[in-house]
Amino acid sequence: MILFRYFKSHSFQGEVESGTRRKVKRLLSFQRYCHASRLLRGLVPHTPGSLHLLDDDYLGQAAHMLSKVGTWNFDIFLFDRLTNGNSLVTLMCHLFNVCGLIHHFQLDMVKLHRFLGMVQEDYHSQNPYHNAVHAADVTQAMYCYLKEPKLAEQLSPLDVFLGLMAAAAHDVDHPGVNQPFLIKTRHHLASLYQNTSVLESHHWRSTVGMLRESGLLSHLPADISQDMEQQLGSLILATDISRQNEFLLTFREHLDNQDLDLQLASHRHFMLQIALKCADICNPCRVWELSRQWSERVCEEFYRQGDLERKFDLEISPLCNQQADSVPAIQIGFISYIVEPLFEEWHRFTEPSLLSQTMMGHLHKNKARWSCLRCAHTPSDVQAHSHADEPNPKGGGGEGENIP
């Protein structure tokens, strides 16, 4: 976990020395100050986790898994172990190849690997949830959604490129705390983005910086590369959970009116936004063995934030109090008010597909299992946890706020 040193402003009873304030700003900037500037480093160096250190047996198993990358029971945790922590780079290189994107966009493989290495490196491995494995998991889910017949028949190579890139980079440099935490600690990024989509804006701008630094799109005309950057931003910003109702209502209206025309670029882009939002919160739709691990990880990240808030006498954010908020209670509320409504509409959109039926089956079974686990608590525990099932108000800092 990032070691935060919280400083108290006037509103938090007192001031501290400017040196401490600068130290906090550095630690909360999410940048890796322990590394030199990438501009000085040049190519991302090989680390002990690089693929060239893996033996043939591990590489063979990883390659076998990649042959089934389009299946919903893909175990990203196992894949990350087989690739020695390089799941995101390995997965993206494979998908770009099988989707024909390297040839279509005439991408330089050295620049592509350099860019992906930057992205993977800028995910914080100490985060239990928002790390490179989560990014790889979302990317694999996004690939499955892009293969849905309703979408696959209409998507252009640019659509596929943007969808996979946005999935891989959607949480890059995530600090392991949510937006309300940044706002109440008066972090400079909250001021920079005016307390609106703070993390998502940072993820996007960081991605653009790495794209330009790696030169991945430098061979394309400037107007085209700039348009790609803007579309990436539109996709990543759509993962802001405070905009959940906005997208859900628009999606529902399109389905009710039957007016989605995927021959229109704007409608395809909207469906890419919806697909990315689904991929970002699809953990409850996975098989129980995988879903449970993700649930425990995200709650551990919540609890760490709560411990940090308690340490510095801040109000503990919703769902971040380990003494009051149980994992089953958090998950039941998340599924009921965030996941189910979105995936029910996705189910309608796919008419429904076999994948959608599989996901909904897992979702209902997992919710039932969490309900059983919640009932195993004592009556006093159940009463204490009951508030976790209440709908999360917009921007309220609940589970959605922690999963941008």
UniProtKB/TrEMBL annotation:
Residues 54-377 form the PDEase domain. Residues 394-404 have a biased composition (Gly residues). AMP binds at residues 130-134, 171, 280, 331. Zn(2+) 2 binds at residue 171. SMART domains: HDc. Zn(2+) 1 binds at residues 134, 170-171, 280. Belongs to the cyclic nucleotide phosphodiesterase family. PDE7 subfamily. Its EC number is 3.1.4.53. Pathway: Purine metabolism; 3',5'-cyclic AMP degradation; AMP from 3',5'-cyclic AMP: step 1/1. The active site is at 130 (proton donor). Pfam families: PDEase_I. The keyword Metal-binding applies. InterPro entries: HD/PDEase_dom, PDEase, PDEase_catalytic_dom, PDEase_catalytic_dom_sf, PDEase_CS. GO terms for biological process: signal transduction. This is 3',5'-cyclic-AMP phosphodiesterase. It comes from the Eukaryota. One of its GO terms (molecular function) is metal ion binding. It comes from Lates calcarifer. Its cofactor is a divalent metal cation. Residues 383-404 are annotated as: Disordered. Keywords: cAMP, Hydrolase, Metal-binding. It catalyses: 3',5'-cyclic AMP + H2O = AMP + H(+).
